[in-house]
Amino acid sequence: MSIQLKTAIFQYHLLIAAVFFCRMTSGQETAVSSQAIFRIQSIELNGNLNAAQGLDIDDDGDNDLIWLKDLPIEKRSAAADSWAGKPEIHLSYPNHLDLSYFVDETGQRRPIQSADDHRIRRQHALLQLQEVMGAVPDDSSPVPLDVQINSVEAAQGYWRIHLSYAADQWQGQVDRVPAYLLLPFNLSQPVPAMLCLHQTNSQLGKKEPVGLGGSSNLQMAHQLAQRGFVCLAPDYPSFGEYEYDFQQRSAQYASGTMKGIWNHIRAVDFLESLTCVQRGSIGAIGHSLGGHNSLFVAAFDQRIKCVVTSCGFNSFQDYYQGNLAGWSSSRYMPRVKQLYHNSPDKMPFDFTHVLAAIAPRALFVSAPTRDSNFDVVGVKKCEQAVRPLYQILQADQHLTFLYPEAEHDFPAEQRELAYQWIEARLKLLR
Predict the structure, then answer these.
(1) pTM exceeding the 0.85 threshold for the entire prediction
(2) Residue-wise pLDDT tens digits, 332-378
(3) Which of 181, 338, 401, 427 gives 161 a disulfide partner, CB atoms 3.0 to 4.6 angstroms apart?
(4) Dihedral angle at the C-alpha atoms of 41, 42, 44, 48, nearest 10 degrees?
(5) How is 15-46 classified by DSSP, letter by letter?
(6) Distance between CA atoms of 155 and 61, rounded to whole angstroms?
(7) What is the greatest pairwise CA distance in the chain?
(8) How far apart are alpha carbons 242 and 219 in whole angstroms?
(9) Which residues fall within 8 angstroms of residue 394, CB to CB, at 6 or more apart?
């Protein structure tokens, strides 16, 4: 496909980091920056004068990054809104640790014996998640991503691009998600991409995974970009730069969790629009808050082919002795308290349902034995529940659970194993 660059070129000032990096405590880095210029160029494709945009970082006339503006989006298979069951039949899976069956259109239990059987159970799992999280937004006509570049910095082996993208709109106002895109230097062909989600750190937010502070154990986007992955790290609503009022938007989103899921689905839309990203090779990774958010978005978006979660979940029965108050704030899922009284027994889903919605795609779990947030006993229960399902789907080789002797952290050994596992699943060619 020929690409003709048009003459409409807009110049923007940016900061490019100088080569001086100062090592600080516990893997922290700071950068000295100097001013430079980048250009955003309109690109014509097959007669469409504004089909794509290009970013010329080094001012040499070539586009270092191209994103398509009207890319047909692969079906996300997110909404589970069509069940053939009778209206009076209530979907009931009272034992959240039993993933061996599905409820058919007559209300009878049937054993899961095939991928078709599992698709029904997955559909039901997504419906049950939405009972607590609220409905996933209609994806038939999303707002344009309208990517806006704020600055670019040269980091250690990659460009760190500070940008924002449009997720949705509310009362006529477009909601923009701040993010960093990490683009490896000198890409010669499309490569896999990773959505990298931060932990609960309201000040740093997305800065920690991209290496701008925090723990070196959690700088996953920075480390994956150095291995050749394109990485996108957005802020979760109300973290980092992202100002967001959950109460004000409660009429649009029943939970902060669902708002996060939608923002992350839109992040995958953006990754798919990049010509440097290999189609069908997108994964997600996160720790703690990012650990369960990576699972949630993968459950609803099947374009995510592999997921790594660190310290991200356990069974609700084993979360602080069954007290789910920590899940019930407006930032997460208020209905946990409002409708289900913080009780695991009253909840329509557990994390086993989330894992079942991801199956048979590749899943890597790191669950430290001394994690005080997510008791490892509850993680092992989830593994015992989901592994037989992966075996039925002939995907047991895609399921990995590790239990390092550590606290609430993502230790170096397990992180390295996760990176190698991602490379194998997404076929990164070094």
Answers:
(1) yes
(2) 999 999 999 999 999 999 999 999 999 999 999 999 999 999 999 99
(3) 181
(4) 170
(5) EEEEEEEEE-GGG-EEEEEEEEEEEEEEEEET
(6) 21
(7) 67
(8) 19
(9) 360
